[in-house]
Specification:
This protein is an alpha/beta fold. It has one domain: Metallo-dependent phosphatases (Purple Acid Phosphatase, chain A, domain 2, 4-Layer Sandwich). 28% of the residues lie in helices and 18% in strands. The strands form 3 sheets. Strands 3-2-1-12-13 form a 5-stranded mixed sheet, with helices on one face. It has a 5-stranded mixed sheet with strand order 4-5-9-11-10, covered by helices on one side. The chain has a 3-stranded antiparallel sheet with strand order 7-6-8, with no helix packed on it. A hairpin with an 8-residue loop joins β4 and β5. The longest helix is centred in the N-terminal third of the chain and has 11 residues. The radius of gyration is 17 Å and the shape is globular.
Length: 238
Amino acid sequence: MRWVVGDIQGCARELERLLAEIRFDPAQDELWAAGDLVNRGAESLATARLWRDIGGRGVIGNHEVYALCARSGRWPRKRDTLDALFAAHDAEELLDLLRALPALVYLPASGLGPAAWLVHAGLHPQWRALDSVAAALGAGAHDDDWLVRDDVSFATRVRCCTVDGMRSKFDRAPADCPPPFRPWDAFYRGTARVVHGHWAWRGHYRDGAVMGLDSGCVYGGPLTAWCQDEDRVVQIRP
């Protein structure tokens, strides 16, 4: 089974409960994270280790970008929950795994479920041929310059934007995006399923071909996972 889990953000206990609930078997199953594995929650180190130990995969989120840039000194540190991760003996291994994550990845159809594109935040309105976009996003070494590139920043941070891709920092209910901004998916004209995280205020939803999995676990909401093979959702409540 292939599972895609929404923003975990250091909620290791909820991830453990989710894995038990779905009877996850690393020998047979895949776990893909929709970005933001770490930060804000209290157990970023335990989360990253658990994800690594079960062979976790995923896409990079804005909190991975922050962690990596803060670690390297590219960005100043803000209030975060990354001390234990940064001090761990295996910190570099874990951070290298996070740095290697793509910004956009294609998940072929699995079982009875549809094929899907996985991205942390969303897609630019002008991105059409997503296979070419994914290749362009992945081009070059994943160094600090890559982390702060405009296209990577868009994929990891957008919520509301304009038709030409100008982003707003608004992060509340999609219906309240201030004009001329609209939710990024309002401009999506593709037919392929797109799965994303990042928008906790929006919660888990399905709207046409787009599915959001960030249900705000770190804020007391459920942790949400989608089983691609069976096209079903499982949630772990706090």
